[in-house]
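stuck on whats below:

***
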Amino acid sequence: IDSITYIITYTGGSGGGGGHVAERATVYEGAQFAVQSTLGTSVAANRRLLGLEWDFDPKADIKEFRPMGSKVNTTTTRGKEYTEGKLNGVLAYNDAVYLFSSLLCNTATVAKPANTYLLTLGVQASGTFTLTWNSLTTAVIVYNPTAAIIGAALELLTGIGPGNVFVQPTAVVNQFQIYFCHLLGTTALALTGTFASMGTPGNASLVATVSTNARRWFFNPLYNQPDTNTAFTCEKGAFNVATFGQQIPYNVISSANFKFNKDGALFDAASLGQALVEAFSLTTASITELACIPVDPATVSVYVGPSTAAMTRLTRCLEAEVSVADRFDPIMTLDDSFTSFSQVIEKPAMPTTKLVVEHIAESQTILAAMRASTTQFMKFEMKGAAMETGFPYRISITMPVRIKDTNRAEKDSIESREYPGTVIYDPGFAGFLKVEVDNLLTAL
C-alpha cells in the first residue's frame, strides 16, 4: 500500500458542545438607547453615542437571615430588582445634551443662540464709549477697559442682570467678545455701541454675528421645585449577536463627575434603571449614530471671580472638576404588579467642585475667599471647532461656589493647592447650576 487517504467528516449537533456558536466577544459589545416620550413606556433603542461606554448590572437586594442559635444563614429574601449602570468616556458636544437632560433637567428651550458681538476699541489714548441694549444705555466706559468693567456695565442694565452676559478679551489688544447667555441666551434684542467720544472714533467698532444653524440647549435645574428629567430605554449586547441582548426599560442618569486636566475632558457617571430583561433582541432598524465631537482639553478654560461680571480666566489651573451625586432614589411600592420600581424621586441636589491651582497669586486669592466665606463664581468653558461663522461648538458650566477646604497638592511636579467647593443657590444668579451646550442638534 503506497498511501492511505483519510476523509473525516464532522457534523455538528446541538448537544455535547457540537455546532458553531457565535461567541460574545467584548469588542462587539455596546449600548444603545432612545428617549422615552412617555416615562416608563419602553421604546426601540435606536441611538448610539460614540463617545461613551455604558454597562449594566442587575441588583436584587438580597437579604440574608441567620436565626438565633445558628452559626450560618438559613435563608435569604429577595426585594424588587433594579439595574445599576456605569458610564464613562470623553465629554462630547452632542453626547452632552443627553447626559445633562437626564442628570439635571429636560431643557424646555432649544433655539438659535443670541448674536455674538466683537467689540474692537483699537488704539486709543483717551475718551469714553457706551453700549445700548433694549433702548437702555450703559454708564460711560473708559477707552481702555477690562472685560470685567464692560461686563459689570452691561449687567447693571434692567433686563440683563448677573450672569446673563459674558465678556472675554481676545488675543488682540483692546478687543473683546461679548455674548449673551443663560436667561438671555436666545435674545433677539441687539447690542449697539456709541464711540463718538473716543479719542479715535474710527478705530472702534461693534460687529454682530448672526446664527443660522447653531442651536443652544439650556439646563438650569430648579432649586426649590421639581425638575422634569429625561428617561431612556436602554439596550446592551453584542451588535453581531442581536438575540443575546439585554433591555433596561426605564433608565435615568443619577450621578456624574466631569474632570478636566491636560489628559482630557472626561466623565464617569451612574444610572438607575428598572429590572433588566435578559435574552432581548436588540433593535437593529433605523439606528442613528451621533457624530462624536469630543471636547479637547486644550480648549477648556476656567474662570473664577467674586461676581459673574468679575470672573477672570485662571492661568495656572491644573485640574477642575464638577460633580452631581445621588440625584434620584427608586420608589419601591408594595404592589406585586410592579416587578421593579415604579418611578424615581428627586433627592437633594448637592453639586460639588474641585480646583487644583498652582500656589501663586491666583491660588492665594481663592484661599482668601475660603477664609472670608465669600461666594466665588466659577465657569468651566469649552469651545470646539466652528459650526458656522462666529459660533463654535461650546459647553459652559456656571455656578456660585463656597470653598470649603484646601489641601496641599503636587500636580505635574508643580507645588499646588486643591480647593474643594460646594455649589450653593444664589438669589442674584437666580439658580445654583447653569449649563449651556451649543451644537447643531435640534432635538434629542
Observations:
- The chain has a mean pLDDT of 91.
